[in-house]
């Protein structure tokens, strides 16, 4: 006996895989929203906070899935006492203009994490904590602070052996006064500045970078009717 026709799923992925741009988080959140959309009144039954909690449980890192869920400048964490997930969202400053410099090579997130040491100097941990606190106001109200807010001592130098070209570009950009970081676990370099300036500096490295000026999405992942796509 034949069963019901079922569903047909087609994925058109625009986020490069293995580049530190959050493709796995985007896939997880998209899958949850697609499943929710199949249930009548799914958004009321399973609101945004529930989507975030489930995505965190699957992905393991609330800060990775938070921006996929809400858009804007997002952060999230798991409360140590209750285990409850907490999600916060802020509007990005209109002048914040990210530019992704995507290299041709991939890097496994697991491999990149394996390069991190089990302990770090106290001074480096303190410095990064201060920069993390600075990053939210830099992205939302004080973009002039982005250069200082994007300084890192906890992961980029340790991972240099796995992505020397990315570290080279990041250093070149920062020496030119442009805020730049390794995106996620790498090897994409994320810069803030005029795309032409970023492209010019990237061209000096001899690596075939794909330069993508990006808008800051304000809505996060959502389900659209087919005629709206």
What name does the CATH topology of the largest domain carry? Answer: Alpha-Beta Plaits
Q: CATH homologous superfamily name of the largest domain?
A: GHMP kinase, C-terminal domain
Helix content: 25-40%
User: SS-based structural class?
Assistant: alpha+beta
Give structural notes.
The protein has helices at residues 23-37, 42-45, 48-59, 62-70, 109-114, 122-140, 146-149, 164-175, 195-203, and strands spanning 73-78, 85-90, 98-102, 180-182, 189-192, 210-213. It has 229 residues and is an alpha+beta fold. It has 2 domains: 23-91 and 217-228, Ribosomal Protein S5, domain 2; 98-213, GHMP kinase, C-terminal domain (Alpha-Beta Plaits), CATH 3.30.70. Strand 4 and strand 5 (189-192) form a beta hairpin. Helix 1 crosses helix 3.
Question: What's the quick description here?
Answer:
With 229 residues, this protein is an alpha+beta fold. It is 39% helix and 12% strand.
């Amino acid at each position: 006996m034949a069963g019901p026709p079922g569903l047909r799923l087609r994925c058109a992925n625009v986020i490069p895989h293995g580049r530190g741009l959050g493709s796995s988080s985007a896939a997880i959140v998209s899958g949850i929203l697609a499943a929710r959309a199949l249930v009548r009144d799914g958004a009321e039954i399973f609101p945004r906070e529930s989507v975030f909690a489930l995505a965190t449980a699957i992905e393991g890192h609330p800060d990775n899935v938070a921006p996929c869920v809400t858009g804007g400048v997002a952060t999230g964490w798991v409360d140590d006492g209750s285990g409850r997930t907490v999600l916060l969202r802020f509007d990005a400053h209109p002048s914040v203009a990210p530019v992704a410099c995507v290299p041709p090579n991939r890097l496994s997130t697991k491999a990149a994490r394996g390069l991190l040491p089990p302990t770090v100097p106290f001074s480096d941990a303190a410095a990064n904590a201060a920069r993390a606190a600075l990053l939210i106001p830099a992205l939302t109200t004080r973009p002039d602070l982005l250069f200082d807010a994007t300084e890192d001592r906890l992961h980029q130098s340790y991972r240099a052996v796995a992505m020397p070209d990315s570290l080279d570009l990041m250093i070149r950009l920062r020496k030119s006064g442009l805020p730049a970081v390794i995106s996620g676990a790498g090897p994409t370099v994320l810069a803030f500045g005029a795309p032409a300036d970023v492209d010019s500096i990237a061209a000096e490295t001899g690596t075939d970078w794909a330069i993508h000026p990006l808008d800051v999405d304000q809505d996060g992942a959502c389900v659209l009717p087919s005629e709206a796509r």
